[in-house]
Write a structure and sequence with these properties.
The structure holds two protein chains of two kinds.
Chain A (H helix, E strand, L loop, with lengths): L1 H27 L5 H6 L8 H26 L8 H16 L5 H4 L2 H17 L4 H21 L1 E2 L2 E2 L7 E2 L8 H25 L1 H11 L1 H6 L4 H27 L1 E2 L1 H4 L2 H14 L6 H16 L17 H19 L5 H4 L7 H11 L2
Antiparallel strand pairs in A: 1-2, 3-4
Chain B lengths: L1 H31 L6 H19 L3 H22 L9 H23 L14 E4 L2 E4 H23 L1 H11 L1 H6 L4 H26 L8 H14 L4 H19 L9 H15 L10
Antiparallel strand pairs in B: 1-2
Helix pairs in contact in B: 1-5, 1-8, 1-9, 1-10, 2-3, 2-4, 2-8, 2-9, 3-8, 5-6, 5-8, 6-8, 9-10, 9-11
The chains are: A mainly alpha, B mainly alpha.
């Protein structure tokens, strides 16, 4: 028993040290100028592609952490959070491109709009439970994307239509660096918000709803208000990521502002890391996004998949991703933070126990 | 008036496909409590089997439907027995993600085998139809509706008149009690999913006759199946039949809205679904449980 505890502590320490070094490197390396890094042959963060990937990872940290508030802490399996990402992106996009507002003035309106929309649809939707809520929210996600692309006003597409929306390029030195830090700041905000939620009366109410909604109501938790607030909070953070994305990417359309696969990716990330925890979704987001980029061949460190031609590679990468999804769901239902965080040890018996718990 | 009649007929005929797409999905959901996100991918597998048999061996597409059903039943049985049974006691999020993973694997394997080209099945009689004045009834759509209703009837027969069907009903009513009276849950679950997949396969065969398919074309059918089952109400085949026909009608009228009605097909479908969910959660035909 004591030996187990010691080894758990050791794992936890290793995880914290390695995680800390990686995080510090990822945050500080870009500060040295890109050209200097390139000439010194510093790996990873030296080239612009990797820079882009790092920003995308931070974006998914925001989305997975935000999803965790409604999906992990409150226990409502939202499958349409990408709608809030898109609404945030289009809010900032419209204000910057059409109304000619400065970016930093229009950015705060992205989370505001997303939260308002979430509160509006949340009132009827959050009356539904289980599968019904999951697919109704998925429906909202699909429908919003379709409406944004197709709504006409006076014969003109209101939001840029199928050809999308172009934003003027934000003129600032080191633009890539700027948006990377902006996205990292958003990630830090969402993690801090989660930390606060889990320690507040509000958070205890949400956990009570997840464990037993009727009992929570009997104990005096205003379940409707709590659920809607959690949904809106989740939407606000997701919308913030969308707002930053639109100015960073300069071009938004239905495909990149409302990608349905993001819905599943953010949930998988939260699940992989550990739902209901502060750092779990962020950990899962980094791991899974790195893996996706790695399989897709975008990382500087790359590899050849045996027997697979370059053309078939992205498809095979998707197959591997799907198999991984199946494996994670079956074998690590409590997320990797369970053993990285020192609560359990990763072993064969752990996997076998996970399997037995849910198997028929 | 003729226009209205035409719309009603086209809506009901299109509803036939939705019935076929919906019954298997509703069965899996009602009995196994799984929202099967791989349903659309299974539909497309059926479509490709029909296309392959038609293109390579020139078999009439309607005669390929039994092949679709048998092949997909085997596939579904294996998937449920080998994979989904392992997490059947986990929270719903896990079954969601698991079936999405299966969906991803199936779609991309299809992409590896068939590529991303559009494939369509065009027997000699496609494009022809019965004409009554200005009202046209296409042969393919009419036969599809018949096949879909036959499929629903066959499923209802299996569920209500056979030994395994009664076992499935018993599981849907109370899983633990069913196990106590000696029903082999693993087998019965696998058969249930297999039946659901078989229905999806037949639906895919029908769909391949009216529109071109690609490996990635399945996702809308998962969503439509969901809407159809919600509309009709969970738990009975007949309710899904009503839901499918109603959905076909709604879609036909939605698309006829002047302007850009057709591009809002998903928005209309989901708006309708959310409306039904919020106002009448048991569906049009459902009973309160």
């Amino acid at each position: 028993m004591i030996a187990t505890l010691d080894s758990n502590r050791r794992w936890r320490r290793i995880f914290l040290i390695v995680g800390g070094i990686v995080a510090a490197y990822a945050l500080l390396a870009p500060l040295t100028s890109l050209d200097a890094a390139q000439s010194a042959n510093v790996p990873l963060l030296a080239d612009r592609l990797w820079f882009r990937i790092a920003t995308i990872i931070a974006m998914f940290v925001v989305m997975a952490t935000a999803w965790n508030i409604i999906g992990g802490i409150t226990g409502y399996a939202a499958f349409g959070n990408v709608a809030f990402f898109g609404i945030g992106a289009y809010t900032t996009g419209m204000l910057v491109a059409k109304a000619k507002w400065p970016f930093l003035v229009s950015l705060p309106l992205a989370p505001l709009f997303a939260a308002a929309f979430a509160a509006l649809v949340g009132l009827p939707l959050l009356r539904l439970r289980g599968h019904y809520f999951a697919v109704a929210s998925l429906g909202v996600g699909v429908a919003v994307g379709e409406l944004v692309q197709n709504i006409d006003y006076g014969g003109q597409p209101l939001f840029g239509g199928a050809s999308g929306l172009f934003l003027p390029i934000y003129s600032i030195d080191n633009r890539g660096l700027y948006f990377f830090y902006l996205m990292v700041a958003a990630a830090a905000v969402s993690i801090a918000v989660t930390w606060w939620v889990l320690r507040s009366r509000f958070g205890y109410g949400l956990i009570a709803i997840r464990e037993n909604e009727e009992a929570a109501a009997v104990l005096g938790v205003n379940t409707t208000a709590y659920k809607v607030a959690a949904f809106a909070l989740s939407a606000a953070l997701t919308g913030l990521a969308g707002g930053i994305f639109s100015q960073w990417n300069v071009f938004i359309n239905q495909d990149n502002a409302f990608p349905i696969e993001y819905n599943v990716q953010m949930i998988l990330m939260a699940l992989l890391g550990g739902t209901g925890t502060v750092f779990g979704p962020a950990t899962g987001a980094v791991l899974l996004q790195l893996l996706i980029q790695f399989l897709g061949g975008s990382l500087p460190i790359t590899f050849d998949i045996p027997f697979v031609s370059a053309a078939a590679r992205p498809i095979v990468a998707q197959v591997i991703l799907g198999l991984l999804l199946v494996g994670v769901v079956i074998f690590v239902p409590r997320g990797v933070i369970d053993f990285f965080g020192g609560r359990s040890r990763l072993s064969l018996s752990y996997l076998r126990r996970s399997l037995r718990e849910t198997s028929l | 008036m003729a226009n209205f009649v035409q719309l009603v007929i086209l809506g009901l005929l299109a509803g036939g496909v939705y019935v076929a797409v919906g019954v298997g999905f509703g069965l899996v959901w009602g009995v196994l409590n799984i929202v099967n996100l791989a349903h659309g991918a299974l539909v497309i597998v059926g479509g490709y089997i029909t296309w392959q048999l038609f293109a390579a061996l020139h078999i009439d597409p309607f005669l390929t439907l039994p092949v679709d059903a048998v092949a997909l039943f085997v596939l579904g049985y294996v998937v449920q027995r080998g994979v989904i049974n392992r997490i059947i006691r986990a929270p719903l999020l896990f079954t969601f993600l698991l079936t999405f993973g299966i969906n991803l694997v199936i779609i991309n394997i299809l992409l590896l085998i068939f590529g991303s080209d559009f494939r369509s099945v065009t027997p000699t009689y496609s494009g022809q139809g019965l004409e009554f004045g200005s009202v046209v009834i296409p042969y393919v759509a009419l036969t599809s509706l018949g096949a879909a209703l036959l499929l629903a009837a066959a499923l209802a027969f299996v569920l209500n008149r056979t030994r395994i069907g009664l076992a499935i009903n018993a599981i849907a009513a109370d899983r633990d009690a069913a196990q106590l009276v000696g029903i082999d849950l693993r087998h019965a679950y696998a058969v249930t999913y297999g039946l659901g997949a078989a229905c999806a396969g037949v639906a895919g065969g029908l769909i391949a006759m009216t529109q071109a398919i690609t490996p990635t074309a399945g996702e809308p059918y998962t969503l439509q199946a969901f809407v159809v089952v919600i509309l009709g109400g969970l738990g009975r085949v007949s309710a899904t039949v009503v839901g499918g026909l109603a959905f076909g009608l709604v879609e036909a009228f939605g698309q006829s809205i002047p302007g850009s009605g057709s591009v809002f097909a998903n928005a209309i479908a989901f708006g309708l679904m959310v409306l039904v969910l919020v106002t009448r959660p048991q569906g049009l035909m459902g009973r309160l449980r």
